[in-house]
């Protein structure tokens, strides 16, 4: 049999362990001190964490929430000992009397209309009590929000890159399309392009940086010249036309550009567009392909044989 003294010690040890566990479970979080001044504190937002705030009599505390939140309500358990004044996303807190610790609940509203709840344990102290560690500013930080924001920005950047890639493909990006680079120059001019090429629909002139772009003319079959529609992006000029010959003019200087592989109808990409990666479909063909895809999707969602209910034939 267990002796009384041994039993008493066992019960005492179990009680201490239980108290330790309970104390740990209900412990409030002390905000961490700033690197420059310990009276400025920081704490990460956790929905179900109580934060301990220690205030000095005759001193105020500023609690700063997210700038994207507005305080709706600040409720204090002991309004005789503490007073609170919310202004936007900032809460000013001040102990009036030194009494037993109390609590405070704060509810805020975010820009999207959702609400957040904050819980505090309030403790007041006299100014001459050096054992206390009061602070004047408490700033909340939101690592989960920052992570979600970075994820959303990365997704938006990926979507933008995808959109720009599609635009480059449709516009005749040199890396996406077959290009004709068989161009020769005749004449000497200060505005000579570095390169000339086309994708069967658009002719691209690349000039040196910071060069004044000359006037550009397309030479017709009868020898007449006409100004061409073009898009200028930095040192790159895209002429929305093909020609056997272009004439570039600036003042008295003239430069002729010859397309040595000129094909009036442009390249045959096989897709009825300027890009082999983009296919043009007639409305009937598109509807037919859509119907085929619907049938395939429907077939893929059916139960495999033997998994469905068994129907007995009627006698």
Describe this structure as you would to a colleague.
With 315 residues, the protein is α+β, with helices and mostly antiparallel strands. Among the domains are: 26-141, Sandwich (Immunoglobulin-like); 183-259, Immunoglobulin-like (Sandwich). 22% of the residues lie in helices and 33% in strands. It has 3 helices and 19 strands. The radius of gyration is 38 Å and the shape is elongated. The termini are far apart. Mean pLDDT is 79; it is low at 14-24 and 300-315.
Q: Strand share of the residues? A: 25-35%
How far apart the termini lie comes to: 77 Å
Task: Write down the overall geometry.
Answer: elongated
Average the pLDDT over all residues and give the rounded result: 79
Structural class category: alpha+beta
Count of helical regions: 3
- The poorly predicted ranges are 14-24, 300-315
Radius of gyration, in Å, reads 38 Å
CATH topology grouping of the domain at 26-141: Immunoglobulin-like
Give, in order, the helices and strands: HEEEEEEEEEEHEEEEEEEEEH
Major sheet, described briefly?
Answer: 6 strands, mixed
């Amino acid at each position: 049999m267990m002796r009384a003294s041994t039993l008493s010690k066992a019960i005492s040890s179990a009680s201490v362990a239980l108290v330790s566990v309970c104390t740990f479970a209900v412990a409030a979080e002390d905000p961490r001190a700033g690197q420059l001044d310990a009276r400025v504190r920081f704490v990460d937002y956790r929905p179900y964490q109580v934060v301990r705030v220690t205030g000095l009599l005759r001193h105020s505390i500023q609690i700063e929430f997210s700038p994207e939140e507005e305080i709706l309500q600040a409720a204090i358990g002991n309004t005789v000992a503490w007073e609170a004044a919310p202004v936007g996303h900032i809460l000013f807190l001040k102990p009036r009397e030194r009494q037993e610790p109390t609590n405070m609940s704060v509810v805020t509203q975010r820009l999207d209309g959702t609400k957040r709840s904050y819980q505090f344990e309030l403790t007041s102290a006299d100014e001459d009590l050096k054992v206390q560690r009061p602070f004047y500013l408490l700033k909340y930080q939101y690592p989960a929000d920052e992570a979600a924001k970075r994820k959303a920005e990365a997704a938006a950047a990926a979507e933008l890159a995808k959109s720009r890639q599609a635009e480059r493909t449709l516009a005749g990006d040199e890396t996406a399309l077959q290009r004709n680079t068989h161009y020769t120059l005749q004449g000497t001019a200060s505005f000579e392009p570095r390169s000339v090429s086309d994708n069967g629909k658009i002719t691209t002139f690349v000039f040196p940086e910071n060069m004044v772009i000359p006037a550009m003319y397309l030479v017709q079959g009868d020898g007449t010249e006409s100004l061409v529609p073009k898009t200028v992006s930095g040192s790159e000029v895209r002429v929305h036309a093909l020609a056997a010959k272009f004439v570039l003019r600036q003042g008295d200087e003239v430069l002729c550009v010859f397309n040595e592989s000129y094909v009036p109808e442009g390249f045959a990409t096989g897709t009825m567009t300027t890009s082999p990666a983009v296919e043009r479909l007639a409305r009937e063909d598109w509807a037919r392909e859509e119907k085929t895809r619907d049938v395939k999707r429907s077939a893929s969602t059916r139960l495999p044989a033997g998994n469905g209910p068994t129907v007995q034939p009627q006698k």
